[in-house]
Known about the structure:
Residues 213-412 form the Major facilitator superfamily (MFS) profile domain. This protein is mainly alpha-helical. The protein has helices at 3-8, 14-43, 46-74, 76-99, 104-114, 120-132, 136-166, 171-188, 212-241, 247-266, 275-288, 299-310, 313-327, 333-362, 364-367, 369-384, 399-410. The chain has a single domain, classed as Up-down Bundle (Growth Hormone, Chain: A). It is built from 17 helices and no strands. The longest helix has 31 residues, at 136-166. The two termini are 20 Å apart.
Amino acid sequence: MPSPYRALFAAPGSKAFSAAGFLGRMPLSMMGIGVVTMISQLTGRYGLAGALSATIALAAAVAGPQVSRLVDQYGQRRVLRPATLISLTAAAGLLFTAHYDGPDWALFVCCAGIGCVPSVGAMIRARWAALYRGTPRLHTAYSFESVVDEICFIFGPIISIGLSTAWFPEAGPLLAACFLAVGVFWLTAQRATEPEPHPREHKGGGTALRSAGLQVLVATFVATGAIFGAVDVVTVAFAEEEGHKAAASVVLAVYALGSCAAGAVFGLLRFAGAAERRWLLGVCAMAVSMIPLLLVGNLPFLAVALFVAGLSIAPTMITTMSLIEEHVPRAQLTEGMTWVSTGLAVGVALGSSVAGWVIDAAGARAGYGVPAVSGAVAVAVGFLGYRRLKRPAPGRGGSVGQHSEREERHVA
C-alpha cells in the first residue's frame, strides 16, 4: 500500500472501524443485485425484480437521511443498532415470502423495510473527518473509502449472483444480511472513534438539504444513480441473452475494478484549482462513457467498455465528498453525505425499474439506452447548477476559512 494510505492508519482505532465499515457496506453491492437475481431465478420476471430492487433503493432514500440526521444528534451506536434490526427483520421476511411464493405485495412491503439500512459509508467517512479534518490526509481518506466502495462492488455482485445461481436463489441476499449485521454491530461497538453527537439545540435547526450546493450534488447524483441501477440490471439480462448469466457478476466486477484503480491513483494526487471544476468534468466523463455500451455485441467487449466507464466513477465521488465538506455545516456532515447517497439511491431505483421494463419490452441491448440517457441528464443538471457550487455554506465558518481549508486539501 502506498505510504499516504499507510499513514492513515496511524490513528488508534482506524483499522478496526475501517474493517467494520467494509463488512457493513457489502450489502450495498449485494442486496439489490441479489434480489434481482433471486426473483428472476424464481419467477423469470425482470420487471418485478427491477421494481423490488427499486423499492429497496427508494425506501433507503426516504429513511437514510432521517437515520443519519438522528446519528448527528444522538450518535452512531444509539441509532444504527435499532435501524439495522428493522432492516434485518424485513430481509428475513423477504426471503421467506420469496421462497414460499408469497404475494407480490408482501415482497414490496419487505423491500420497503429493508430500506431502513443505515448508510455505513457515510458513518465511516464521518469518523475519518473527525480524525483528519483540515489536513491533506482527509483527501486520502476519502479516496481510500472510495476504493473500499469499489472493492465491495467488485466482490459483492460476484458473491451474490454466484451464490444465488450456483447454490439456491435466496443465498445472495441472505449473506448480504449477515454482512450487515456483523458490520454494523462491530462498528457501533467501537466508541472511541465515534464522532461526537450534536444535539438539536446546537445545530441551528433545519436540514442539511437547505444548502444550495448540496441540492445540486444530490440532483445530479439522482441521474448518476440511474446509470448505475440500469447498468446492473441490463448487464444481468444481457449475460442471460448471451447464455452466460453467471458471467454478469464478473462483468460488473470489471466495471468496479476500473473505478477502484482510478480511485487508488486519485488519492495519491494533489490538485490546484477549484474542486467543482473537477467534479463537473467527472460527471461529463461518466456520461460519455455510456455511449459505447450501445454498440457492444458480446460479453468480452462489454467488459472492456465497462472498465473504461468505471475510471471516472471514484474520482467523481471523492471530489463530491470534498464538496460536501464545503457546503454542509459540520454538525450535519453525516446527514449531508447521506443525502448524496440518497440521490444515488433514488437514481438506482429509477434506473433499475425503467431498465427492467425496457428489457421485458425490447430486450437487453435496448436497455443500455437507459444509462446513456441518464448520463445526458446528469450533465445537464451539473451545468445548470454549477454556479451554486462556488458558494460554500455560511454555517461552515465563512468563505475565507473554507477556501483556506480547501487549498490545504487540494494543493500539493
